[in-house]
Each structure stands twice: as C-alpha cells, then as structure tokens.
C-alpha cells in the first residue's frame, strides 16, 4: 500500500551511472544470497513432497518510489527449478505502480496453488473435466495507522472453484474436498503456523551488500518467447465483485481502519510440456494499481526447463515483499510514530526468508498440504541502539498482512460452481 507521501528523497539514483534497469520478472543464474539465513532442505518422509523456498528482498533506490524493491527466489535443494528475480512496487495518488505489489504476488500464490491441487486432483481421480478455474479475493486491513498500534491483518479469503464437466456432482465434490485439503497455501492461512523471526544488525552482513539505484522501464517481461508479465485491462471475474478502488492518501492514513482487497483469476495454459503452467490475472483494488498478467509453472518433475516461478515461489516472495513494504513505511514514519526513535536512523535493510511447505500422501486421494514453518531474518544497517532496533523490528512485523495471515487463523470460504451453477457447500 502506497501514497504519494511515500515519494523517495533519493535523487537521480534510478538514472545515474550506477543504476540498473530491471525486468518485472526474469530468470537469473544465481539464486538468493542471504547472509543471516541458512537455507535448508527438510528431509521428506516416505510419501511426502517438500517445497522449501528461500528468498532475499532488497531495496531499489528510485526517485519516484521509495517502495520499489527486488527479490530473488528459488526452491532449496530441488534440481531443475530456476532462480527468479522479480520487482515489486506500490501505486500512489499520482503514480501507477511499475511492478505488482506484495499482496498481488501473495494472492497470485494463493489462487494458483489451489488451481495446482485441482489439476493434480483431476489426475488422481481420473476425471473428465472440460475446464477448471479459480477466482480468489483476499481482504486485507490496516488498523490504527500512524500509531504504535499500527497493524496489518488478512481478514478473509474467498477462493471459488469453477468447473465445467459432465462428471456427476458427487465426483466433483470429491475433487473439491481433495483440492482444499491438499492446498498448502490454504492450510497456512487457516491454521496457526510456526513463525521464527530474528533481527540482525550491522556487522559482516553488509560486506559488499547494500541497496542500489534502479528502475523498471517496462511492464513486459519475456523469457523464451513467453510474455511472463504485462499490464492488462480490467479483470472480469464471473463469481466475485471487484468493488470500488480504495484511495489511500494523507487523510485516510489516519483512519481507524483502511480496508482493501486483491482479486486473482487463475486458469490453466494448455501446454503439453508443462501441464501445470498457469495464467494469472491479478489486481489490488486500489487507485493507480494496475491489472497484471503473470505466469506460474508448478510442473515439477516434468522434462524440460521450467517456464515461470512456482506458486510456492510467489507465496514466499509475496510474504517477504509484504514485510519489506512495512520496513519501507517505518523507514519514513517510525520516528514520527515512536518519539524515542527520533534521534536514531536506519541506513538500509533487507529481508531474508524461507518458508517450508509439505504435502503428505502425494498424488493419492488422501493428499494433504501443510505449511510447517516461516523463518524470517530482518537485516538492519545503521547507528541504532539494540532497544530501538527491536521496536522498529516488532512494529514492522506487526504491520505485515502476510505474516499475520500465517500467524493467525484466517476465515476461508470456497464455493463450487459446476457448469455455471453454484453448488451447496
């Protein structure tokens, strides 16, 4: 979430000789390079499938947006899956985002991960399905902004399943139950997940590290002839109301609550080589926030090169981007919110994170999904006392919608639409 009061004090860093022009999404040779986080691979039990995803988020200094950042994400210990770099940005009163915002990435992961489990369920149950799609709407809320009680919440997730098929209703309901039970993102939202946050200050963690100037000149990213990202016209979901755009400015920032939502539509791409390649349309329902098309490739175990990040990549990156956005806000406002911080200054920061996902009884009718742990390192640089660093750290964690979503138990509603008709739960 962003307003024009976020506008960066940085001058010309996005156009100078040390500036980098980034793609919204690009395949990179080198994976995440954390200094505080030690990426680890959980040993899978027999019949289980683990996805351990690591990400590092760093600031991109830009005169138009103080909330532009980049992240590098990759599964840990999984051969054949690429490292991806993605940029992230917010919109403002007079500034349209150059890249998807954190919660658009997170909602993309939520919707696409459910679609993956539906596609797997269709294979497991050997169903004849003409089409399948997921429409998701996630409701977010800032409470008591510009105060020490400033907190971010995920209030509800609606994840509707749209199927066209001549299969009996009982078979489709069985598919729905299997998909919802094995939906790891849904498990992480609906159940309390272990969170392991740590603050790391200064020291060797900043050797040859630091934010650099940069920009994102185009919304279009292309890899191997596939347009991975682009801005598109308005979304038109079949089962969800988009609602009015929420404007967030100097007046609303002092409201008791600021509520907004993100909508995502996930549909399969017919690709024989990558059967779980998906096209996602996503938009934060806020003024000057664009509608985006992104691609997800969950075709793990298939021959050939992956074509896009996985749904777990987007879930993990969206969560870490969200936390970094709260650091962005506190970087500008914390000394106003917390008077004891007025004589302190944070020079730089980044987020290093790993989320461990697990699927038991993989590719069987009893398939069940879990989120086991979220490991988060906030790395700060600057002449800040340990006491005030922890205040900054705790306030940022408290404001993070995504972190609170994994920490708390979120209400999830899912309606099945079979051949255009809503079915009873």
Q: Strands, helices and their partners?
A:
Blueprint: E1 20-21, E2 25-28, E3 49-61, E4 69-75, E5 83-88, H1 102-125, E6 131-143, E7 151-164, H2 169-182, H3 184-190, E8 194-201, E9 212-215, E10 221-223, E11 226-232, E12 257-268, E13 277-284, E14 291-297, H4 311-337, E15 348-360, E16 368-381, H5 386-399, H6 401-407, E17 411-413, E18 416-418, E19 421-422
Parallel strand pairs: 1-9, 3-9, 7-17, 7-18, 8-16
Antiparallel strand pairs: 2-5, 3-4, 3-15, 4-5, 6-7, 6-12, 10-11, 11-14, 12-13, 13-14, 15-16, 18-19
Helix pairs in contact: 1-2, 1-4, 4-5
Residue runs with pLDDT of under 50 for 5 or more positions: 1-12
Computed structural class: alpha+beta
Total of DSSP H or I helical runs spanning 4+ residues: 6
**What is the number of beta strands?**
19
Mean pLDDT over the full residue set: 90
Euclidean distance between termini CA atoms: 34 Å
| Main sheet characteristics | 10 strands, mixed
What's the alpha carbon Rg, rounded to whole Å? 21 Å
Q: Strand content of the residues, in percent?
A: 25-35%
Helical content class: 10-25%
* C-alpha geometry: globular
Order of helices and strands: EEEEEHEEHHEEEEEEEHEEHHEEE
